[in-house]
């Protein structure tokens, strides 16, 4: 009787577990269908903890996709790997394509190639996989080629998701978070807002220029006309999925597939605000039109769309004004620019088109590209190279008229897939201008990026093309458009805040790591430009120092590695001193194997490439 009672109790407990798992899966499926991938992750992982081999493959597949779509690439790699191992060659072939793409984004080019090759052993004629193999070869050839620009993170609060931005007045129009999610709507929503530029990397709250624009869902990708009187933007982000909702959401049109697609609007500046947004005529509720960029004195609009008869994903289009001032028919920019993957975020400076793509030769995820425009036709696009691009996602590039400073967004420096806005400047500016410290105190900004740093000059990558400026002074500007003076009431222009390279900017510079050979203390000659850039940056201000932190891999004893790291720090310090840096301005530390960048600790089998990541000397400017 006792045994029977125990069996009944165990069956009851197992049934509770099964009920709980089904509940978590059902909730996860709802979140997944509504593109709420971070919420779905929570539910699916809870369900996965309740062991049930019948649903394990399904949960691993869903978690792989959720982490991929939420840009958490390290976790995506983990789950794709588990999915493939559990499937044991019975995994769907498309999973290998996804896994290969994730490995490339994570910078593991060798293993990415292996996955593409395995997929091609099943489908040898697949065009996409063959193109990706060629792109990987390009990435390997160019991974050490870094242009002579410096990249610094700003404090512009985009809450981890960049929806584009543009210069206006003495600051930037961008998308700011308007809700933190709730039980009924956990998706984050964004409104257009304005932030004043204080010193190129520091943004503060600005005027309420955008309060006259209000949409129920998302607003983003602004572009202001040359005279500052019109702003073009996209609104109404996708919220639901096919088969879920087929009705209107407030005033938002829903497509036949139940999707609230993005549309492009234009609003006019009046009495200190942009007001009365009007929909452009080529929008269609059945597809997205987004990321507008106005050019050619307001006569050409570039944008991204997934309208029918495109090449695949989203393509870049342009539309021009016709004789009566109305917009004509959108024109696809063609195979020279567009691919079967996504092309997004077009921006134009003079006769140069900048855009973001996932389908051209690149380093990993989304990369930035540029193409010259001649008689309205763009040339073959060129990858903008590092430091603008990394193995992660780099998007939404905007530059000033001199082409030497500007901004872009990237999720390169964290594992959560969150974007930051980065300021870039041409390193030649460091030698052409004298430091002009900001006259006002700046707020603390976020920590600098830890990957894909800068400051190595290279002749192998193209220069950022932009129109010549009539002002020969190379000081990095902070304002690109003149203060707007609408009629009949004039808006009083604000004073232009300009600054050079302050101590705070210098400390945010990220330099390329100095990588050493195994058991070696010789400085690679290819890295001298990095050290020289650090020396040059330290001379901008008398109050900063150069910090040298040397590391080793885990092979060998901890005691030996500590001494080896100290020797590496010493040789770098000696080089800096020979170049004229005072000993008192160098902070030198050997850290041995105490700060590994990956899992390659004692007893863990790793490739030499993985160990190489740890054999490094890191250079920073500190106060």
Give the structure's gist in a few sentences.
By secondary structure, the chain is an alpha+beta fold. Helix content is 26%, strand content 22%. It is globular and about 75 Å long.
Describe the structure.
The chain contains 12 helices and 25 strands. The chain has 3 domains: 123 residues, Alpha Horseshoe (Serine Threonine Protein Phosphatase 5, Tetratricopeptide repeat); 352 residues, Tachylectin-2, Chain A (5 Propeller); 112 residues, OmpA-like domain (60s Ribosomal Protein L30, Chain: A). It is globular, with a radius of gyration of 26 Å. Strands 14, 15, 16, 17 and 18 form a 5-stranded antiparallel sheet that branches. The protein has a 4-stranded antiparallel sheet with strand order 1-21-20-19. Helices cover 26% and strands 22% of the residues. The protein starts with a helix and ends with a strand. The protein is of the alpha+beta class and 623 residues long.
**How many domains, as an integer?**
3
Which fold name corresponds to the CATH topology of the largest domain?
Answer: Tachylectin-2, Chain A
Q: What coarse outline follows from CA principal-axis ratios?
A: globular
- Rg over alpha carbons: 26 Å
Helix segment tally: 12
The residue ranges in which pLDDT falls below 50 over 5 or more consecutive positions are 1-16, 237-250, 433-500
Furnish the topology, listing elements before pairings.
Blueprint: H1 2-33, H2 37-48, H3 53-69, H4 73-87, H5 93-105, H6 109-122, H7 127-142, E1 149-153, E2 165-168, E3 171-177, E4 190-197, E5 203-205, E6 219-224, E7 230-235, E8 263-270, E9 273-279, E10 289-295, E11 300-305, E12 315-320, E13 331-332, E14 343-349, E15 352-357, E16 367-374, E17 377-378, E18 382-383, E19 394-399, E20 405-410, E21 420-426, H8 428-432, H9 503-506, E22 514-515, H10 528-538, E23 545-550, H11 558-578, E24 586-590, H12 608-612, E25 616-622
Helix pairs in contact: 1-2, 2-3, 3-4, 4-5, 5-6, 6-7
